[in-house]
Amino acid sequence: MLHTTFNLLKLAGACGQTPGCGEGYDKLAAYLGGTKTYGKDTPIALTVVLDSNGLDDALWCARAVLPEEAAVRDKQIRLLACDYAAGKDGWLLRLYEEQYPGDTRPRQAIEVSRRYAMGTETAQELKATAKATATARAAAWAARAAREVARATGEAAKAAWEARAAREAAWEARVAGESVWQREQFVAMLNAT
To answer: Using the 8-state DSSP alphabet, how is residue 145 labeled?
Structure first.
């Protein structure tokens, strides 16, 4: 399980004091009875943030985990980003490959990033793959934060689809299912740490 604290969140930039700037921080504080009551250095499980604030905030809070959990977080978040980039059952990756036949850079970037997270690929090999894909939009798939990866990929893929009503309805259903799957993947990642 990964944890953060109110102080770590502040250090990471969750302002909370400026109107319009820290709604998530304030929402979490209210959920836990206030920072003074809960304690500014008391660990907060990211599953609590997920329950209180939702997936986007929980993913954001992963940047501010306890120092002793940072290495585990780095590995798990990289693997999660790879999952999100490919999509549930690899559908986003397949959709990209249908639009750009023969362009294997996204698949290669995801595979190398996954192997790097597992310790079977070196940082040099990871950098070489990133450099090779830097000129393609696909490079962003493995490099961006987990949620942004799937969203950007999905938006690009959606733009490529025909605008027919049946396709739009199918797309919306798929995206809704993807959101549920992403939350499930995040919870599974947290439970694995």
So the answer is: -
- Alpha-carbon distances, residue 119 vs 72, 83, 107, 145, 180 (angstroms): 12, 17, 18, 20, 29
Indicate whether this model's pTM tops 0.85: no
Q: How far apart are CA 74 and CA 113, in angstroms?
A: 12
- Beta carbons within 8 Å of 73's beta carbon, 6+ residues apart: 2, 62, 65, 193
DSSP state of 5: -
Write the pLDDT tens digit of every residue in 116-154.
999 998 888 888 777 766 544 443 444 444 444 444 444
Joined together, the tokens standing for residue 106 give 């996204």
Name the residue type at position 129: T
In 3-state terms, what secondary structure has residue 108? helix
Distance CA 104, CA 96 (A): 10
DSSP string, 59-101: HHHGGG--GGGHHHHHHHHHHHHHHHHH-GGGHHHHHHHHHST
The partner residues of 44 in beta bridges, in order of sequence, read 4
- 167-178: per-residue pLDDT in tens? 566 667 777 778
